[in-house]
Every structure is written in C-alpha cells, then in structure tokens.
Here is the input.
Amino acid sequence: MHETLPRIQDSFPWGEDLWLKASAGPFLPESWENELRQGPWYRLFLPRALGGAQCSLPQGLEVLIQAAAHQGSLGWRVNLGAGAGFFAGCMAPETARQVYSAPGSVVAGSGAAKGRARWDGKNWRLSGTWQHCTGALQATAFTFNAITDEGQIRTFILQPDQVQILKHWPYFGLKSSHTYTVQTPEEAVVEPHMIFDIGKAHQFWDYPLYRMDFMVFAKYCMAASLVGMALCVCHHAHAWTAAGSKANPHFYQALRLLETAATHAREILNADSEKLYKRLLHNSADSDHTFPSATIFKKISEILQYSWQLFQSGGMDMCREDVPVHQALRDMWLAGQHFLVK
Here is the structure.
C-alpha cells in the first residue's frame, strides 16, 4: 500500500453486527462515514498538488481491492469516489483546484450522456436525469455528460445545490453505496470554465496516471472492486463454516475454486498494472487497449460462476439475510452487472 495511507482494517474497524449494519444500509456506520470524509480514500488518484495521495496504478488498485474485501458498499464508494479524481487532469488548473482542493471534497456523477446542454451566449444551460450516481449524498460536486446542440458529448460540473437527489435504491445489494438518480429540477447554469472533456489532459504531467486512456483506467478500477468483493465472500464463507454451519463437499469445492479464481485475478491485475504503469513512466501518453488483459475478465466470469455454485450448495441457511456471506454475495453479484466488467 502507498506509504502515506493507513491500513483499511485500522481505519474501518468492524465486528459482525457493525458489518451487517453496513450491508443493510442506507448508511455505513457513523465512524466509517467520518473516516471517508476525513481520510485519504477519495484522494487516491489525485496529485499531491491538490492534496492527493498520487498513488501509482498498482498501489491504488490494491487499496480498492482491500476496501471491497472489507465490505462491498465501502469498496464501491471508495472506487467511484477515488476514480473521479482522474478528471482533475482533464480540467483547467483553476477549475481542478476549485473542485478538489477543499478537505473532504468528493465528486460523484455519471458517464451516461443523459443530459442536454445549450449555450445561451454567456453560460451553458444544462438539464437531465442521470441514474446510478454512487456517493451522491456525500458529493461536493457532480460531473455529468450531456449532448450539446452541436451534437458533442461534453462533461459538466454542477454544485450540490443545483441538483435533486432521488433517494431510491430498489436493488438487493450495495445498499450503503448511496447510488441514486440525480436530476436537475430546472435548467442549471454552468459557467464556461466548469466544463471539460474526459481524456484530454491539461495539467499534472508529473503524474503518469493521467496519461492513461480513461476507459482503461475505469476497467482496472471496476475489476479491482470485483476481485475485492470475491475475497470478501471467501472470508465470510470460511467464517460461516467455522461458526458451526454445516456445509457439504460441493460447498467446499466451490469455495476452493472461488478463492483460486480471485487470487489469480488479483495477481494478474497487479502484474498488468505494474507493466502498464512502467510504460506510462516512460511515455507521454498511452491508449493501449490491450490492458487490462482479457484474462482478468475471464477470471471475473469464473468468480461469478463459482460464487453461484457456492450459494446453491449452502442450503437454506445461506439464504438468511443476517448471514454475512449472503450479503457479501449480493454486493458482488450486483457489482458484477456493471458494463465495464461484463
């Protein structure tokens, strides 16, 4: 882990009751919420010039794995909140400082082009509705994609008082991720400097991460969270049997296969990201779409397959909502529906 970062386990302590509370939602335990606001977790991929940890790609991914292995919603919040730090390199310098420099700043939003933007001669006027915005209740700024009158897709920055958050999450997992629909109740006024284009870096050239293709970066982050959630399932499956729950041979076989797939995926992520980051250190830009390797996504497919076998062989007790391994499976299965890991 990056030398400036504390350990996840020390920063987010838990017992079973606290962990189940985190999984039941809608909020993480108060101490965890405070740590997210005050700690470095949303600043993994921000440059030191903005008060960030400036993690290398493999260092940051390992933190994402550990956060998701700790608890699913926590990992998803750290993933999406930290990942939005990538946009700092795409903004004008003064805009990045405005968005990210304040202590506790965190950006939420959506990459779906679900908005419309028109130029009124002085400012942009933005309207739209964006689903699945993780960390919406904590956001100090939002970034949304919208289509301009010229047919271009551009990214706009809104303040929390310019949006309405629809606090409805009908899904069976990631219940404390605060992933909600966000909309503009009326046209939002966006000043010209509060707009940027993802993938066009403008600053912080001493941070190699910002030379990456954004979609490659995002795939790495999503894969890291899935691997972490698989490790979380394995941990709680072992704890479930250690506590005296009866399991048949099919359960243990599925657990061994799941652990093996998760361990291999973690090793491949580490090796791939190390190789890519070394290339970034010696090149001005890198848009190589051979990263992450297809092997990672094959392993994620195996993880989802073996986790279902684990659930099927667990019997009725595995269906109880107060059993941690049950909740860990739900978080992982829901995260596995994200298009970047399917």
The longest strand covers residues 107-119. The longest helix spans residues 249-281. The chain has two domains: 8-86+205-335, 105-196. The radius of gyration is 20 Å.
